Amino acid sequence: MVLDMDMKRYVIALKKRLWMIIILLSISTVSAYYYTQQLTPNYYSASSKFIVNNTVEVSGGEVIDFSSIGSSIRLIDTYKEIILTPAIMDKVVVQYPDLDLTANQLLSMIRVSSLNETQVMTLTATDTNHGRAVKAVNAVAKVFQTEIPKIMKINNVTILTSAQERENPRPFGQNISSNVMIAAIAALLLSCGTVILVEYLDSTIKQEEDIVQATGADALAIIPKLSKRQLNLPHKKKGHSAHSTMKAGEQAL
Questions:
Q1: What is the tens place of the pLDDT at every residue in 87-105?
Q2: d(CA 127, CA 157)
Q3: Which residue from 188, 223, 215, 212 is spatially nearest to 6, judged by alpha carbons?
Q4: Which residue segment(s) compose the domain that 195 sits in?
Q5: SS (HEC) of the chain
Q6: CA 20 to 30 Å from 25, out of 40, 118, 135, 196?
Q7: Where are the transmembrane segments (predicted)?
Q8: Among 55, 80, 53, 56, which Cα is nearest to 69's?
Q9: CATH number, domain with residue 144
Q10: CA dihedral 129, 134, 136, 139 (to 10 degrees)
């Protein structure tokens, strides 16, 4: 019974302050949309792929040495570390000054990945400028392919695909719908929680149920609520009656 009364009390409080909840919800969603759309930068990515394999010469041509595939796969982890070292990044910065990047800036843009048990490596550059991301990833790929024979004394890296600049690249990182939804849920929980907390801390007695809950005693009588109109009505009638009586007396005199 007490639980039902509390639930009813909180529901009534939420209904009374529904306007506040709607305003806070609207402000939060609009702010999240504006922040994501206007203040969050667009990011673009560009990728280049390598294959790591060994070849042997047969009848004047080169074919893949299948017996060394296992060692090539194991080399990928080593290559993933080498490509991110100053031995590669410093040379890219020197050979491609048009990128206008430092070695550390270039390093922060680059990510290297590979699928398990494959000889393929993927080099990805991320930047707020799509064209610069394409140039950066291709520059790193070319320098890496050139420097590996000098570092490892083996020429087993081939560029499979180079990054291409697209006319209408799609940015990533701006998830407007997700951000707006998160803001709406957070605002709804915060506003409802605040209303419930204020109502919970409010010890003012507003109705007979509050007295019963506070004292544990049953209500013997209930004084109904009267509107101002109901309160003024008897007074007007009384005044009207007295005024009529006085007039009657005056006439009698």
A1: 999 999 999 999 999 999 9
A2: 26
A3: 212
A4: 2-37+175-221
A5: CHHHHHHHHHHHHHHHCHHHHHHHHHHHHHHHHHHHHHHCCCEEEEEEEEEECCEEEECCEEEECHHHHHHHHHHHHHHHHHCCCHHHHHHHHHHCHHHCCCHHHHHHHEEEEECCCCCEEEEEEEECCHHHHHHHHHHHHHHHHHHHHHHHCCCCEEEEECCCCCCCCCCECCCHHHHHHHHHHHHHHHHHHHHHHHHHHCCCCCCHHHHHHHHCCCCCCCCCCCCHHHHHHHHHHHHHHHHHHHHHHHHHC
A6: 40
A7: 180-201
A8: 53
A9: 3.30.70.1130
A10: -160
Q: Are residues 49 and 77 in the same domain?
A: yes
Pair 47, 157 in one domain: yes
Say how far apart CA 50 and CA 113 lie, in whole Å: 11
At 100-154, the pLDDT tens digits run 999 999 999 999 998 887 889 999 999 989 999 999 999 999 999 999 999 988 8
110-114 and 157-161 beta bridge pairing: unpaired
> Does a structural domain hold residue 230?
no
Same domain? 105 vs 204: no
Tokens 């060692």: give the residue: 71
- Into how many domains does the chain fold? 2
Give the pLDDT mean for 8-25. Answer: 86
* Alpha-carbon gap, residue 42 to 57, rounded angstroms: 48
